[in-house]
Write a structure and sequence with these properties.
With about 130 residues, this protein is an all-alpha fold. Among the domains are: about 40 residues; about 45 residues, no CATH class. Helices cover about 65% and strands about 0% of the residues. The protein has four helices and no strands. It is rod-shaped, with a radius of gyration of 40 Å.
Length: about 130
Protein backbone atom coordinates (compact mmCIF):
# COMPACT_ATOMS: atom_id res chain seq x y z
CA UNK A 1 0.00 0.00 0.00
CA UNK A 2 1.46 3.29 -1.05
CA UNK A 3 0.09 6.53 0.37
CA UNK A 4 2.20 8.91 -1.69
CA UNK A 5 3.65 10.52 1.41
CA UNK A 6 7.27 9.38 1.62
CA UNK A 7 7.61 9.78 5.39
CA UNK A 8 4.41 7.82 6.04
CA UNK A 9 5.39 5.12 3.55
CA UNK A 10 8.77 4.74 5.28
CA UNK A 11 7.10 4.55 8.71
CA UNK A 12 4.67 1.88 7.43
CA UNK A 13 7.49 -0.20 5.94
CA UNK A 14 9.53 0.02 9.14
CA UNK A 15 6.43 -0.75 11.26
CA UNK A 16 5.71 -3.83 9.14
CA UNK A 17 9.32 -4.96 9.40
CA UNK A 18 9.34 -4.53 13.18
CA UNK A 19 6.01 -6.40 13.46
CA UNK A 20 7.33 -9.27 11.33
CA UNK A 21 10.55 -9.45 13.37
CA UNK A 22 8.55 -9.40 16.61
CA UNK A 23 6.36 -12.25 15.34
CA UNK A 24 9.38 -14.32 14.27
CA UNK A 25 11.12 -13.54 17.58
CA UNK A 26 8.03 -14.62 19.53
CA UNK A 27 7.79 -17.92 17.64
CA UNK A 28 11.51 -18.61 18.15
CA UNK A 29 11.32 -17.64 21.84
CA UNK A 30 8.33 -19.93 22.51
CA UNK A 31 9.98 -22.80 20.64
CA UNK A 32 13.24 -22.31 22.54
CA UNK A 33 11.35 -22.13 25.82
CA UNK A 34 9.61 -25.43 25.02
CA UNK A 35 12.92 -27.08 24.11
CA UNK A 36 14.51 -25.86 27.35
CA UNK A 37 11.55 -27.13 29.36
CA UNK A 38 11.80 -30.51 27.65
CA UNK A 39 15.56 -30.57 28.31
CA UNK A 40 14.99 -29.95 32.02
CA UNK A 41 12.42 -32.75 32.16
CA UNK A 42 14.78 -35.15 30.39
CA UNK A 43 17.55 -34.15 32.80
CA UNK A 44 15.28 -34.83 35.79
CA UNK A 45 14.30 -38.21 34.33
CA UNK A 46 17.94 -39.16 33.79
CA UNK A 47 18.78 -38.13 37.38
CA UNK A 48 15.93 -40.30 38.65
CA UNK A 49 16.96 -43.20 36.42
CA UNK A 50 20.65 -43.14 37.32
CA UNK A 51 20.24 -41.95 40.92
CA UNK A 52 22.17 -39.20 42.62
CA UNK A 53 25.13 -39.22 44.93
CA UNK A 54 24.75 -37.70 48.38
CA UNK A 55 25.90 -34.12 48.69
CA UNK A 56 26.02 -31.76 51.67
CA UNK A 57 22.53 -31.42 53.10
CA UNK A 58 20.92 -33.77 50.57
CA UNK A 59 20.81 -37.55 50.95
CA UNK A 60 21.67 -39.69 47.95
CA UNK A 61 18.99 -41.49 45.97
CA UNK A 62 19.46 -44.88 44.35
CA UNK A 63 18.69 -45.24 40.67
CA UNK A 64 15.96 -47.34 39.11
CA UNK A 65 18.17 -50.38 38.59
CA UNK A 66 19.31 -50.37 42.22
CA UNK A 67 15.69 -50.12 43.33
CA UNK A 68 14.63 -53.00 41.07
CA UNK A 69 17.48 -55.10 42.43
CA UNK A 70 16.34 -54.38 45.99
CA UNK A 71 12.78 -55.39 45.07
CA UNK A 72 14.04 -58.65 43.57
CA UNK A 73 16.01 -59.39 46.76
CA UNK A 74 12.90 -58.83 48.86
CA UNK A 75 10.83 -61.04 46.59
CA UNK A 76 13.38 -63.83 46.94
CA UNK A 77 13.17 -63.57 50.73
CA UNK A 78 9.37 -63.70 50.57
CA UNK A 79 9.46 -66.66 48.18
CA UNK A 80 11.79 -68.46 50.58
CA UNK A 81 9.06 -68.22 53.23
CA UNK A 82 6.30 -69.57 50.96
CA UNK A 83 7.73 -72.99 50.16
CA UNK A 84 8.87 -75.83 52.40
CA UNK A 85 12.63 -75.98 52.80
CA UNK A 86 15.01 -76.77 55.64
CA UNK A 87 12.47 -76.05 58.37
CA UNK A 88 13.10 -72.33 58.74
CA UNK A 89 10.37 -70.96 56.52
CA UNK A 90 6.94 -69.72 57.46
CA UNK A 91 5.46 -72.56 55.39
CA UNK A 92 7.41 -75.09 57.46
CA UNK A 93 6.12 -73.51 60.67
CA UNK A 94 2.52 -73.65 59.44
CA UNK A 95 2.92 -77.28 58.34
CA UNK A 96 4.40 -78.19 61.74
CA UNK A 97 1.54 -76.44 63.54
CA UNK A 98 -0.97 -78.31 61.39
CA UNK A 99 0.71 -81.64 62.17
CA UNK A 100 0.67 -80.91 65.90
CA UNK A 101 -2.98 -79.85 65.73
CA UNK A 102 -3.85 -83.01 63.86
CA UNK A 103 -2.21 -85.09 66.62
CA UNK A 104 -4.11 -83.16 69.30
CA UNK A 105 -7.40 -83.63 67.48
CA UNK A 106 -6.82 -87.33 66.81
CA UNK A 107 -9.55 -88.39 69.27
CA UNK A 108 -12.15 -86.33 67.38
CA UNK A 109 -11.33 -88.20 64.19
CA UNK A 110 -11.80 -91.57 65.93
CA UNK A 111 -15.39 -91.03 66.91
CA UNK A 112 -15.82 -87.73 68.62
CA UNK A 113 -17.90 -84.94 67.22
CA UNK A 114 -16.51 -82.31 64.91
CA UNK A 115 -19.33 -79.83 65.52
CA UNK A 116 -17.89 -76.85 67.41
CA UNK A 117 -21.39 -75.98 68.79
CA UNK A 118 -21.92 -79.42 70.34
CA UNK A 119 -21.69 -79.66 74.14
CA UNK A 120 -18.57 -81.31 75.55
CA UNK A 121 -18.91 -85.03 76.34
CA UNK A 122 -19.78 -85.89 79.94
CA UNK A 123 -16.98 -87.46 81.95
CA UNK A 124 -17.41 -91.18 82.59
CA UNK A 125 -16.68 -92.75 85.95
CA UNK A 126 -14.17 -95.62 86.04
Amino acid sequence: MVTGIPALDTALVWGGAVSALAAVGTVVWRGLRGVLHLGRRVNQFMDDWAGEEARPGVPGRPGVMARVSAIEDRLQRVEHELYPNSGGSLRDAVDLANQRLARLCLDEEEGGTTDPQAPPPSPTAP
